[in-house]
Design a protein that fits this description.
The structure is a homotetramer of 338-residue chains. Chain A has 2 domains: 62 residues, Alpha-Beta Plaits; 255 residues, Aldolase class I (TIM Barrel). Helices cover 32% and strands 19% of the residues of chain A. Chain A is built from 10 helices and 15 strands. In chain A, helix 7 links the parallel strand 12 and strand 13. The relative contact order of chain A is 0.13. At the C-D interface, helix 5 and helix 6 of C face helix 5 and helix 6 of D.
Chain lengths: 338, 338, 338, 338
C-alpha cells in the first residue's frame, strides 16, 4: 500500500503514519518528494484495514498495490480451472452452453425446451424454480415443484441443471436437485448465501452484480472459495449504466480482463446483458470470439407467452441458428463447444 | 400500458396484440397514427406481465403508465407516514438524527459514542453488529455480543437502536435487541429478507441499492409493506456512478422526488454517500435544507483506529459542530430535529 | 407522443393538453383509463417541442413514440450505406480495418507504421495531427506538418487516411489531406463542427460521446446528414461507467442495436474502448463476430515510447496476430475484410 | 508517480523502468516488496507522459500522486477567488444568483423575466442566444439578435448577463454583449473554445461535462487559466448516470470536494441537474446549505410555452418563494446572497 500525504502535512505526521504501518506488522518506507511525502508499506497487507489510514492527520489518499482476493488470483494458481457438471465443461478451452427458459413453468414447457436446446448442442439446462422478482406481484417461481421438473428433464436428456438458490435456508434443497447452483446478480454480495454454497459439494455459478467492480466480483468468489468449494464459474451478465436501449450494458472486455487476473472460468449471459432477443445472437457469436468459457442463453418455446423475461428469450429456431454460427467461430478458433 | 408497433407491422399484428390485451382482462384501444400504430391497454395492469408484449410479432416497445408499487404510493395514501422508535421521529416535519460508529467494537467504544452523540442532539444510535464486508478477510462484526452492547447503550442513553440484519435466519434475534432493523444496500433486493422483516413488529430502514432505480427501491419497500409492516423508512445512501473522488454519488434530488411519489419518510446517509469525512458536514446541512426526514451519520471517538469505515467517520467534535449548523437551518425552515 | 396525466388531474386539464396538441398541427386522442387519462398525439411530431407538455398543469410525463432522427433512420432508407475511401470499405458486408498510431510523431514513425499495418491487412491509416488532450500540458499534435506526413504515407502505401478535425476553422485544411474526417468523442455534440463537416466532400467518422445515448448519437449524425453529406460512419468507442479496470466500457451490443435502427455503418474502437493493449486483441475478434462494419485500432512501432496512448497501442507483431484471427472469423462468417 | 510492477516481472524490468524515470528528469526510487516491486518517481511529473510506463515490459499499473492541474489548485493559491460581474459576486462568502429563461425568445419575454428575477433578488440574468440542441430540428436560438435583447435587459435592470458561446469564431461577438461567457457542458472539452475564452477579458462560467471526472473538469478550467484569464467559475450541472427519473444526477458533494481542491468558485445548476421544475426549489435550498458559491436557475414567465426546457423552468412565483427560503438559510449560515 502507498500512503500519500497532503502537501501541507508535517514531517511528524508522516512519521506517525509510518509508526502505524510498522505497528500493523508491515515495513514502512518514507519517500520525501519535492511536493509530497509518500509512505510505502511493504508486506502482505491484504488482510489489514488499509482504509483507516485515510483518517490519520495529514493523509491525502491511500493506494492499494495488492488486490484483496487471493485464492481466486492467477498469482496463486496459474492454470485455468475447468468446471464440469455431467457433460458440460467450462474453462481451459471448453466453451459450455447453457440454455433454457427464464422460469420453469410446467412439465411440457421444460421438457420440450430441454429436448430442443439439447438437439441444438447445449450441454446445460437453465430454468428458475425460485425466482427473484423486482415486484412482489410478479410470478415467484414453482419452487420445489420446479426443481423436480428440472430433474426430470435431466433424467431424459442428460443435460446438467443450472438453477438459482436465493437464500441460505434453501441451499440443501436446491443442492439435491441441481448440478450447478446459481447465485443471482442481486445476491452477489449476500455473504451468508455465499458462505452456504461454499460448503456445498456442487459447483457454483456466480453472477456479477449490476454495479459490482471486478474486485468486488472476485472477492464475492473468494467468499465461496474460502469455504472450500473450488468449483466456481463467474458469469458476466451486464452492468447498470446510463444506457436505456439495452436492459444492462454487457462489457465483453471483462473476459480478457478476468482471464488475466483469475484462473476461474468466465461465461457470458447475453440475454440479461441486452434484454432484447434481437440483440442476443450477435452477442453469442461475440462471446465465443472473445474467448469466454461459455454462455447462458434464455430460450423459450413461445416467448410471447413466457411467464417471465419473454422479451429477451430466443425461440428454439433462432437458438438453433445462433448455435450454428457459434460453432463456425469456435471451429475457426480451435475452441471446443461443450 | 402503451404498446408501440413497429413501422412495418401489419394491421393484423396490432389486432393480435389488442386481443392479448383483452385476454388479460384489460380494455384495448387501437390508435392508427401516420407512421405507427399504438395500442393503449386500459385498466390496472400493475400485476400483469407487461414485458411479454415485447415478444409479440410487430411490437417495437412497451411503455408503462402505472408504476408497479401501490401500497408505497402517495396515490394510495397521501398523508406522510411518521416512523417513530422511542424519541426518534422521521417524517411529517420531523428530521430524525441517527449517529454512531460503523461497527460496534467494544463496550467503552459504543457507550462513549452513544453519550457523545446524544449530547450533540441525536435520538438514534447506529452501530453494526453483523457487518456485510466486501472481503471475507475483513472484520465481520461482534454479532450477538454487539447487539447486547447496543441494548446496554440504549439502556443508559435512551437512544433508539438502528442496526443491520443480513439474513432471514437472524431476523428474530436482531428484532429482540433493535428498535429499527436496517436492511443494507447490498440486500435491498434480498427478497426473502424483505419478507422476513415485513413480518416483524419493528420499523425497518431500507437502504437504496447502489444501482437501484427509484421504482426498484419502492418495489423493495412494497415487499415489506405487503407483509403488513407499515413502518418503513427509505434511506438514500448514494449510487454507483463513474465518479471516483467520492465512494458513491449522493443524489439529494431523491428527496423531493420520493416525497412526490410516496408517503414513506426518506433519510440521507452522507457518510456512505460520500465516503470521506471532510465532505460529510456540508452534506448534512444540505440534507436538512432539501427537507429530508432525517440523516444517519457515522461518528467514531477515534476514526483512525476504527475497525471499519474510519475514512468516512466524523469525530465527536466535528459532529457536534455539524449538528449546530443543522439546527440553525432547521430553525430557519421550521423543521423539528428529533 | 403519449402524454400521461397525473391521477389527480382534472378532465379540463386533459382537454387543455389536447387543445395544445391540436394547436401544434397534430391530432389528439383522449383515453380515459381507470386511474389515469392519457392523450395520444398523432402525426409527425419529430420537429415539435414535445418537452413543453411537461409544464402543462396536470401532466405527469410525456413519452415519445417517434425517434427524432429521420435521415439516419432505417425507416427512411433500408439498404445499408457503404462508406468507401480508396480501398477501405465499411458497411454492407465489408469490415474495414483502420490502424495506426494515436498521434503522428515523425516521418519515420508514421511511414514505418503505415507499411506494417498495410502488410498486416489494414486498408486505412489512423493518426492524429490535431490532438484533443485532457491536459493543456500534454502534447497537442504536429498539426499541419502531421497532415503532410499522413499524405506522404498514403502516397507510399495507398492506405486511406483517417484523421481528426477539432474545430470548424480547420475543416478545409484537414479536408485537403484526409480521406475520412474523424469527429472525436468529445466533439460529438459540437454542432458547429458537425455542420461544417456536413458541408465537406469527404466521408466523416463520428465517434460516440462517452455519455451519449443512442438517440443523441444518431441525432449528431443527423446534423451531418442534414447538411447533405451522406457518407457517415458511426464509431462505438466505449462509454463512461463505474468500471475503472478499463478506460471506458465498450458495449458491443451497440452494433446489432444500431444496425436495427440505422443504415449507416458502425465500427468499433477497441483501443479507446478498453485502454489496455492486452484487452484489445480479444475485442477485435469480438468486433468481427458481432458483425461490426469495421474497427479502428491503435498500433505503434514502440508503444512504450509513444507520445500519447502508449498503454493501449498494439505492437506491430500483436496487430499482425490479431488480424490473422480476425480473418479466420471473417472467413467463417462470410464477411469481407477490407 | 508510483509504478507497480507485475508479480512475475524481473529485477531487470524494474531497473529499466527506473532508468526511464531518470531519463525524464525525475528521481527514481525502487522498493522491493514481498510480492511486488514498486518504483517511486520523485519530482514534478505533471507535464510528463505518465501513461507510457504502462507499456513498459513488466509494468502492472501506474498511480499518479500529483493531480495534473496546477493553476487551478488550492496548493498554488489558497485564498478563494471571487468572480464579479456588475453586482453579481460568486465566491469568498458570496452566493451569486443567476436566473432567467433557457432561451431568449423575444423582447417582452426577456425584459419581463429580467424584471421579475431582479425583483426576487437575482443579480445575474441567464438566457441563451446561441443554443446547442441535441436535434438539428430544434430551435437554435435568436443568435446576435438575442444578444442585443440581453444587453437591453441589462440596460434596464443592471443585471449581469450570462450567456453561452459555442464556437471560437463567436467569442468576440459574445464577449461584446455578455458579462460572463458560459461554456456549456457539451463543450467542456472543446479545447479551441477554451483557449479562445481564455484570451477574453470577461469572466467565464465553465459547466461540467455530463461524464467529466473532477480532474478533467479542473483541467478544462486549467486550459482557460493557462491563457491568462483568471476569472473562472465552475458550474456543477449534473452527471449522466443510470437514473432516469431525473434528467441528470446532481452531486452536491462536488461543492465541498472542489472547495478542498481549488480556489475557484463553484455554483450549482439545479434546473439542468434535475430536469423537472418540481425538484428545483428543494435543490436550490440545498445548494445554499452545502455552501456553493451561487446557483443558476431557469425561470420563464410561461414555462408551458417556452421554446426550450419548459419542463425544468420555474414560474416567477415559485422562483420568488424559492429565493425567500434561500435567504433564510443564507442568513442562518452567514452567507451573503448576491
Amino acid at each position: 500500500m502507498i500512503i500519500v500525504m497532503r502537501q501541507d502535512a508535517s514531517r511528524e505526521m508522516a512519521q506517525e503514519v509510518a509508526r502505524r504501518v510498522e505497528a500493523m506488522g508491515l515495513k514502512s518506507h518514507l519517500i520525501f518528494g519535492e511536493e509530497r511525502t509518500v509512505i510505502a508499506a511493504i508486506g502482505d497487507d491484504r488482510r489489514k484495514d488499509r482504509e483507516k489510514f485515510e483518517s490519520c492527520p495529514g493523509v491525502d489518499s491511500v493506494m492499494k498495490v495488492l488486490a484483496e482476493y487471493k485464492i481466486a488470483s492467477r498469482e496463486t494458481k496459474n492454470e485455468p480451472t475447468v468446471v464440469q457438471a455431467l457433460d458440460l465443461k467450462m474453462g481451459g478451452g471448453y466453451f459450455g452452453v447453457i440454455a433454457g427458459p427464464c422460469s420453469v413453468e410446467s412439465e411440457p414447457q421444460i421438457l420440450e425446451t430441454a429436448r430442443l436446446v439439447k438437439a441444438a448442442g447445449a450441454h446445460g439446462l437453465r430454468g428458475g424454480a425460485f425466482k427473484p422478482r423486482t415486484s412482489p406481484y410478479s410470478f415467484q417461481g414453482m419452487k420445489e415443484e420446479g426443481l423436480k421438473l428440472l430433474a426430470a428433464a435431466r433424467e431424459e436428456t442428460g443435460l446438467a441443471i443450472v438453477t438459482e438458490v436465493m437464500t441460505p435456508h434453501h441451499v440443501d434443497l436446491v443442492c439435491e436437485y441441481a448440478d450447478i447452483l446459481q447465485i443471482g446478480a442481486r445476491n452477489m454480495q449476500n455473504y451468508h448465501l455465499l458462505q452456504a454454497v461454499g460448503e456445498c459439494p456442487k459447483p457454483v455459478m456466480l453472477k456479477r452484480g449490476a454495479s459490482a467492480t471486478m474486485e468486488e466480483f472476485l472477492l464475492a468468489a473468494e467468499y465461496i472459495l474460502d469455504q472450500g468449494n473450488q468449483q466456481v464459474v463467474l458469469c458476466e451478465r451486464g452492468i447498470r449504466t446510463f444506457e436505456s436501449h439495452t436492459r444492462f450494458t454487457l462489457p465483453l472486455a471483462s473476459v480478457p480482463y478476468l482471464h488475466s487476473k483469475t484462473h476461474l472460468p468466465i461465461i457470458i449471459d447475453p440475454s440479461h446483458g441486452t434484454g432484447h432477443a434481437n440483440l442476443v445472437p450477435a452477442m453469442c457469436s461475440a462471446s465465443v470470439a472473445v474467448r469466454a468459457d461459455g454462455m447462458m442463453v434464455e430460450v423459450h418455446p413461445d416467448p410471447s407467452n413466457a411467464m417471465s423475461d419473454g422479451a429477451q428469450s430466443l425461440t428454439p429456431t433462432v437458438f438453433e441458428q445462433t448455435m450454428r454460427e457459434c460453432e463456425q467461430i469456435a471451429r475457426a478458433l480451435g475452441i471446443t463447444l461443450s
